[in-house]
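Hello forum,

I keep getting stuck at the same step: I have a sequence, I want structure tokens, and every attempt I make locally crashes halfway through. Rather than fight my setup again tonight, could one of you with a working pipeline run this one for me? It's a single chain of 241 residues.
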Amino acid sequence: MAEPLWTEDTSAAFRDLAHYAVPERELQVETILSLIPQPEGAALAMEICCGAGGLTAAMLERLADLRVLALDGSPSMLKATRAAAGGHAARLDTALIDIAETGWRRPPEPLHAVVSSLAIHHLDGLQKQRLFADIHAALRPGGVFVMADLVEPATAVGRAVAADAWDEETRRRALDIDGTLEGYERFVAEDWNYYRLPGPDPLDKPSSVTDLLDWLRAAGFDGVDLHWMKAGHVIMSGVRG
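Reply #2:
Ran it on my machine without issues. Output:
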């Protein structure tokens, strides 16, 4: 049996590095929250691959009528998410999933919102298209899907620009957070910058901005738009009409 590509050691490394390695992390969270309308009464949202739970906690804090179903493939990430929810944990449910499987895509009720950050790039193009269609089907009319993720540059020049920008943003964040370059140096040592890799990566399979936008429209989403982009990372969204 092949060794899993993502392990609990990977989860621990991500939790340690995310403070430094996620470009404009705080702005990303605020942007995602701004795209989720206030629900009219009780509503359910889903986060696909919730990681350490920062975005889930922010949704619970900002949207008082919202319940959140947080999903991840890592037990330690789900544990971290439950801890991050704090006093809002009564409005949180968690479940262990494999993002490539489809059974979890039938939620217990139509969803007000689906969000995902730094997860969908682990799927190939056909898997992304199937996921977008399944998310559209799971949303209620007016429900929104917001995705923050890596994208694949169209050219070698674009890839070099993304690589340099990600290094520089991680370096800046390390200095701002700790006053040292230790976080950035670990980012470099662990080859975390996808755009620096010399060849295909079995874990990361980003798609182009144009493909992602086209696939969202093909899945039936209205109002598909790109809201933010930096260092090869984007935020885009669509609404079920």
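The radius of gyration is 17 Å. If your local run keeps crashing, start a new thread with the error log.
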